[in-house]
Amino acid sequence: MQENYRNYGTFEEEYATVRGMNAFISKVFGWMFIGLLLTAGVAYYVSTNVNLVITLVSNSFLFFGLLIGELVLVAVLSARITKLKYGTALGMFFGYAALNGVTLSIIFLAYTGSSIVTAFGITAITFGIMCIYGYFTKADLTQFRTILFMGLIGIIVLSVVNIFLRSSGVEWFISILSLVVFLGLTAYDMQKLKAYYFGTEGDMALRGNLGIIGALALYLDFINLFLTTLRLFGRRR
Question: Which of 81, 85, 111, 160 could form an SS bridge with 115, CB 3.0 to 4.6 Å?
């Protein structure tokens, strides 16, 4: 009876591939973590500066201008990621994280410190669980991509509508929908990192840039999960 054995060379190649993929994913998480630290640091600094807070809260033109600036940065980074230099792409990511910190500074005024810490802890745990699932699952999560993005569009539309309705019921529904969508997107974006690694076929420049867009995707998943958790469970001042 013939038996099949894994030869040593094949094992070494597979081990090197997995090790390389894990190193790539670790670097992506490193950039994401630095982005979150930058956002938190800027948000806290702005919230403790009375003059900056008053300017931000009282000047709606400035506040929405910052939001538009963030959207432009994300759009350009996403559309041009394969053509940008690595340093430029990384700078744009950090620039977005800093701007986001400015606009998120108002949560320190709206919610208690303990609520913010609790929401962050819950987010970190659920985010970690979904990342682990996205890494190890054998299921192809791309089949849920359309559903997830339709849910994301629904969140945006309902949020705009609720600006005028100011309905607590609609706000609660948006929060639940956001929780489901961004948990799903976290697992999907985590699995997509593996596709980025293998899809670049050794092109280190492209792999580096796709790593940045992967860090941005996970960063956005974390921030949105955090804000959703804060809306659901946070205590307002």
Answer: 111
Backbone angles phi, psi at 79, to 5 degrees: -80, -30
Residue in the block written with tokens 């005024």:
109
In sequence order, what are the beta bridge partners of 111? 236
**Structure tokens of 154?**
């629904």
d(CA 211, CA 60): 34
Cβ-count burial 116-142 (b if 16+ within 10 Å, e if not): bebbbebbeebbeebbebbeeeeeebe
SS3 2: coil
The pair phi, psi for residue 200, each rounded to 5°, is: -75, -15
- Listed as own residue / partner, the contacts of 191-194 with beta carbons closer than 8 Å and 24 or more positions apart are 191/134, 191/135, 191/137, 191/141, 191/142, 192/217, 193/24, 193/25, 193/28, 194/21, 194/25, 194/135
Tens of pLDDT along the chain (237 residues)?
Answer: 344 434 434 545 655 688 999 999 999 999 999 999 999 999 999 999 988 888 888 888 998 899 999 999 999 999 999 999 999 999 999 999 999 999 999 999 899 999 999 999 999 999 999 999 999 999 999 999 999 999 999 999 999 999 899 898 999 999 999 999 999 999 999 999 999 999 988 899 999 999 999 999 999 999 999 999 999 998 887
Rounded to an integer, what distance in angstroms lies between the CA atom of residue 151 and that of residue 173? 12
Distances, alpha carbon 170 to alpha carbons 28, 133, 149, 200, in Å: 35, 30, 19, 42
User: Do the beta carbons of residue 218 and residue 32 sit within 8 Å?
Assistant: yes
